[in-house]
Amino acid sequence: MNPRSSGMYSTGADASQRVDDYADKLGDKVASVRDNVSDAVDSGTEWATAKARDASDASQALWSSVCDTVSARPMAAIGIATVAGFLIARLFARD
To answer: What would the pLDDT profile of 27-44 be if each residue is shown by its tens digit?
Structure first.
């Protein structure tokens, strides 16, 4: 081998080492970003679950309140439903 070709092998090995080092650094950064995204998704999932649970609790409380009111005053509930139905029919009636 001539001195020029041995220099090319040395330069090639250096370049290969630099690429490997860069890939390692890039891999570490990707892992860090992946961990951050995973933490954000977990946090968002916990938040959404809590909000869904709160909405479900509020819905159940409202339904319970309506049932208690209808049980206490059934004639008023029938009257309100009749008036609401009449108003809705008037809104959607085609003349």
So the answer is: 888 888 888 899 999 999
End-to-end CA distance of the chain: 99
CB 69, CB 77: distance < 8 Å: yes
pLDDT tens readout for residues 59-91: 999 999 999 999 999 999 999 999 999 999 999
Residue 54 CA neighbour count, 13 Å, CB half: 6
Q: How many domains does the chain have?
A: 1
Tokens 């080492």 sit at which residue? 17
Q: What does pTM read for this prediction?
A: 0.50
**Three-state SS for 28?**
helix
d(CA 49, CA 78) in angstroms, rounded, equals 37
- Give the structural domain span for 77: 3-92
